[in-house]
Design goal:
Blueprint lengths: L2 H6 L2 E4 L5 H10 L5 E3 L4 H14 L7 E4 L12 H5 L4 H17 L4 E2 L23 H16 L12 E5 L18 H8 L1 H8 L4 E4 L3 E2 L2 E2 L4 H11 L5 E3 L7 H5 L5 H11 L4 E2 L3 H11 L5 H17 L18 H15 L1 E5 L13 E5 L25 H9 L4 E5 L13 H9 L3 E7 L20 H10 L4 E6 L15 E4 L7 H9 L79 E8 L3 E3 L3 E10 L5 E11 L10 E10 L4 E9 L5 E2 L5 E2 L3 E8 L6 E8 L3
The structure holds beta-D-glucopyranose.
Length: 715
C-alpha cells in the first residue's frame, strides 16, 4: 500500500447529501476513503462499494456505517427502555432484528451499543444508554454486541458493533451534552469503564471515542484510555473511531492549535478512523514525512481497520446479495418489538389495584393527552430509518381491545408535549367527568431527548401537569401512561395518579404492549434501570453511592416545613441529605410493581466463608401471593464492608427474570465468584480483597432479605 492508500483507510466521510458516488467516487478510485457514514440507500451503498472494490487500485471494500441504535425499520424501545427489561436474551434478539434489516441495505457497521453509565437524567443521551449500573449495562451491552455481530461476524446478516462513547461521557457537567466531565480515576475505572470492558470481551469489533474531556484531556486524544487501558490492559484488537469530527474539535477544546496538531494527537493516542473530518486526510502523510509521527503508528492503525474488514468477511463478500439472505420475517420482527416493549413497561404505582382495568365494569374510557396517539413520537430518538407507518398507538390498540361495547373517547388536548395552550382542557375534563376511568398518555415527544437534547427541568413539559391536576379534580380514577426518553421528576403529579405506568419510548408496538398491561393480559415486569429523583436538585442521585462519613439515618432527616427557626444545628441530623427533599429518590433503582405479589424467603448461601478463587452459591425462594401470574426480576446486591478504597453501599451482582404462577414458588440461583467482588484500588490496580461482605436479595435496590459472608485469601 502507498502511504496515501494507507491514510485513505483511516478516512470516513459523510455520504448523506446528493448522490454520493458523484462526489465520493474520485476519492474512492484514488484509494482515499475507507468508510462512508450515513447512507442507507441500498442502491447507492452498492454503487459506492462497487467503485471501491472494482475501480480502486487495491480494491479494498468499504465499511458502511450507520446509527442503527434500536432497530432499523422496525423500531424497538429506546435502549433505556430495553434496559428496563433486564433481559439480555431479549436485548440480543432486538439487536438481531436491527442487524438483519440493516445488513440488507448494505450496512456493515452500526454505532451501537452506547454503554455510557449516567447518573443524570437531564442528559438527553440517557435515552440511548443502558442505565446507571455498570453490571446491568455490561450484561446488556455484551448481549447487544452478540446480537449485532453473532458468533460469526462474517455472516451475511452480521454487522460490526461499536462500543461508545469511550469514556465517561455520561458524566457531563449538569447533564449538558458534550460538556466537560469531572470523573475521578477510581470512579472511572470502577464504574464507567466496566461496560466497555464487557463489550470488548464480548468481541466488539470497534469502539468510538467520546466528545467529552476528562482531567484536561479530550477523550479523542487520551493515550491513557486508548492505549494504556484499551490496548495494553484489555488487549483490544478491533478498531477505534473518533466521534463526528472530534479530531478537529481538539482545537476547539484548546488542546491543539490547528488540524495538523489535532491529527497528530489523535493518531498518537490511538484513534484509527477519523469520523467525518479531514484532519487525517490532509495532514497524516506530511506528519509522517516530517518524522513527527512514526510510520509504524500509521501501519498499526491501518492493520486495525483491515483486520475488522477481514473479520466481517468483506473481502470475500463486499456486496449484499439480498436474494441469498433469508427473507425478512416482519411477523417475527414485530413480535420481538412487542415482547421488548411489554417487558420494558414499569408499573410505578397501582393504588387499590386499579390496574388491570376490569373490562366487565367499564362503559366509557377517556383517553387524553399528547402521547396517546403519536405514531412518530412513540419511537423516540435515533430513528434515521425507522418507519412510523409501522407504529400502532395506544389509541388504536386500546380502541380495538375495548371493542364495541365500551366507548373510548379520545382527546389529544395538546398539539405536542411542550404545548402551553390550554384551550382544550375544559373539554378534556368534560370527557373525564363522563368516563369510568381516565387514561392519560403523557410524557415527552422524541425531540426532547437524545443527542444535544438535554433538559435542566425534567418535570412533565408544557401544561401537562395542569392537565393532570384538572383531570384529577373530575373525580374519576386516573391512570397515567408516560412515554419519555428519560426519568422525569414526578413529585408534583404522582399523587394525582391512581396508577402510573412508565413506558419510555416503546417503539412501533407501544399501543398493543401498553394495552395488554392496562387490561391485564400481561403483568407488568419492567424494573427501573436508573433511579428516579423526586426533584431535579437531587441529581445526581443513584443507588450505588458511597456511605460517606455521615450517612443519613432514618428518623434523623429533618424537613424544611417542620424546622423550628431556632433549632440547634445538631437537631438536623448532620448528615448527607437535602432539607427540602430528604435523601430518598422518588423511585429506587430496580423498582417495578407487578400484578403478582412476590415474597422473597429462604435465602441460603452454600457457605458463609469462601476463599479467593472460589464461587459462592446463593438461592432464594420467591412465592407469588398475588392473583395473577407474572415475571419478576430477582436482584442480588452486595456490600464490601471495608476496602482499600471506599466501596458503594450496594452493588448489583446478579439478576434473574423468572415467571411465577399464582401461588407458585420458584427457586432462584445466583453464583457469585470471588472475582465479581474485585475493584480498582487506590493505586489503580485490580484487587480482590479479603474481608466481610453483606448481601441482599429482592425485587429492587432496597431489598431487605439479608445475609453475609467472609472472603478469605486464596487457600
Ligand atoms: C454521535 C455518535 C454517532 C455519530 C454518527 C455523533 O454526533 O455522538 O453517537 O454515532 O454522531 O452519527
Amino acid at each position: 500500500m502507498t502511504r496515501s492508500e494507507k491514510v485513505g483507510q483511516l478516512v470516513q466521510l459523510d455520504g448523506s447529501h446528493g448522490y454520493p458516488p458523484d462526489y465520493l467516487g474520485e476519492r474512492l478510485r484514488a484509494g482515499g476513503l475507507g468508510s462512508v457514514i450515513n447512507n442507507a440507500n441500498p442502491d447507492i451503498v452498492k454503487e459506492l462499494q462497487r467503485i471501491a472494490v472494482e475501480e480502486s487500485r487495491l480494491g479494498i471494500p468499504l465499511l458502511i456505517g450507520r446509527d442503527v441504535i434500536h432497530g432499523f425499520r422496525h423500531v424497538l424501545p429506546i435502549p433505556l427502555g430495553q434496559a428496563a427489561t433486564w433481559n439480555p436474551e431479549l436485548v440480543l434478539a432486538g439487536a438481531r432484528v436491527a442487524a438483519e434489516e440493516a445488513a440488507r441495505a448494505g450496512i456493515n457497521w452500526t454505532f451501537a451499543p452506547m454503554m455510557d453509565v449516567t447518573r443524570d437524567p437531564r442528559w438527553g443521551r440517557v435515552a440511548e444508554c443502558l442505565g446507571e449500573d455498570p453490571h446491568l449495562a455490561s450484561e446488556l451491552a455484551a448481549a447487544m454486541v452478540r446480537g449485532f455481530q453473532t458468533d460469526d461476524p462474517s455472516a451475511p446478516t452480521a454487522i460490526a458493533a461499536c462500543a461508545k462513547h469511550f469514556a465517561g461521557y455520561g458524566g457531563v457537567d449538569a447533564g449538558r451534552d458534550y460538556d466537560t466531565t469531572n470523573l475521578p480515576r477510581n470512579e472511572l475505572r470502577n464504574v464507567h469503564l466496566r461496560p466497555f470492558r464487557a463489550a470488548v470481551e464480548a468481541g466488539a469489533l470497534s469502539l468510538m471515542t467520546s466528545f467529552s474531556e476528562i482531567d484536561g484531556m479530550p477523550c479523542t486524544a487520551s493515550r491513557f484510555l486508548l492505549r494504556q487501558v484499551l490496548r495494553d490492559e484489555w488487549g483490544f484488537e478491533g478498531l477505534v473511531v473518533s466521534d463526528w469530527d472530534s479530531v478537529r474539535q481538539l482545537s476547539i477544546h484548546g488542546l491543539t492549535a490547528d488540524d495538523r496538531e489535532a491529527a497528530r494527537e489523535a493518531c498518537e493516542a490511538g484513534v484509527d478512523i477519523e469520523m467525518q473530518g479531514e484532519a487525517y486526510a490532509h495532514h497524516l502523510e506530511e506528519l509522517i514525512e516530517s518524522g513527527q509521527i512514526a510510520e509504524a503508528l500509521l501501519d498499526a492503525a491501518v492493520s486495525n481497520v483491515l483486520r475488522v474488514k477481514c473479520l466481517l468477511g468483506l473481502f470475500e463478500r463486499p456486496f449484499v446479495d439480498n436474494d441469498t439472505l433469508p427473507a425478512p420475517d416482519p411477523v417475527r420482527m414485530r413480535a420481538t418489538a412487542r415482547e421488548t416493549a411489554r417487558q420494558s413497561l414499569v408499573l410505578l404505582k397501582n393504588h387499590d389495584n386499579l390496574l388491570p382495568l376490569d373490562r366487565g365494569r367499564l362503559k366509557n374510557v377517556a383517553l387524553l393527552g399528547p402521547l396517546a396517539d403519536a405514531p412518530y413520537q412513540q419511537l423516540g430518538t435515533w430513528i434515521f430509518d425507522g418507519d412510523a407507518s409501522l407504529s400502532v398507538t395506544l389509541r388504536q390498540a386500546l380502541g380495538e381491545q375495548l371493542g364495541d361495547d365500551i366507548e373510548l373517547s379520545y382527546l389529544r388536548v395538546f398539539e405536542h408535549s411542550r404545548s402551553r395552550d390550554t384551550r382544550d382542557m375544559a373539554a378534556a375534563c368534560e370527557l373525564a367527568a363522563h368516563a369510568d376511568v381516565v387514561v392519560l398518555g403523557l410524557g415527552e415527544e422524541s425531540i426532547l431527548s437524545g443527542e444535544a437534547h438535554s433538559r435542566a427541568d425534567i418535570d412533565l413539559p408544557g401544561a401537562q401537569r395542569e392537565l393532570v391536576h384538572a383531570v384529577r379534580a373530575a373525580g374519576k380514577p386516573v391512570v397515567g401512561v408516560i412515554l419519555a426518553g428519560r426519568p422525569l421528576t414526578l413529585s408534583n403529579v404522582i399523587n394525582d395518579f391512581d396508577a402510573l405506568l412508565y413506558a419510555w419510548h416503546p417503539g412501533i408496538e407501544a399501543g398493543p404492549a401498553i394495552t395488554e398491561v392496562l387490561l391485564g393480559d400481561v403483568s407488568p415486569s419492567g424494573k427501573l434501570p436508573i433511579t428516579f429523583p423526586s426533584v431535579v436538585g437531587q441529581v445526581p442521585i443513584y443507588y450505588n453511592h458511597k456511605m460517606t462519613g455521615k450517612p443519613p439515618l432514618p428518623g434523623q432527616v429533618a424537613h424544611i416545613d417542620s424546622l423550628h427557626t431556632r433549632a440547634p444545628q445538631t437537631s438536623l441530623g448532620m448528615s448527607a441529605y437535602h432539607l427540602d427533599a430528604g435523601h430518598r429518590p422518588q423511585f429506587p433503582f430496580g423498582f417495578g410493581l407487578s400484578y403478582g405479589q412476590f415474597h422473597y424467603h429462604d435465602l441460603q448461601l452454600d457457605r458463609h466463608a469462601l476463599s479467593v478463587g472460589e464461587t459462592l452459591g446463593i438461592t432464594v425462594r420467591v412465592t407469588n401471593h398475588g392473583a395473577q401470574a407474572g415475571d419478576e426480576v430477582a436482584q442480588l446486591y452486595v456490600r464490601d464492608l471495608v476496602g482499600n478504597v471506599t466501596r458503594p453501599v450496594r452493588e448489583l451482582k446478579g439478576f434473574e427474570r423468572v415467571s411465577i404462577g399464582v401461588g407458585e414458588t420458584v427457586t432462584v440461583h445466583f453464583e457469585l465468584h470471588s472475582e465479581d467482588l474485585g475493584f480498582y484500588d487506590r493505586n489503580d490496580e485490580w484487587r480482590v480483597e479479603p474481608g466481610a461482605f453483606q448481601l441482599w436479595v429482592g425485587g429492587d435496590s432496597d431489598a431487605d432479605l439479608e445475609s453475609g459472608f467472609y472472603l478469605h485469601p486464596a487457600a
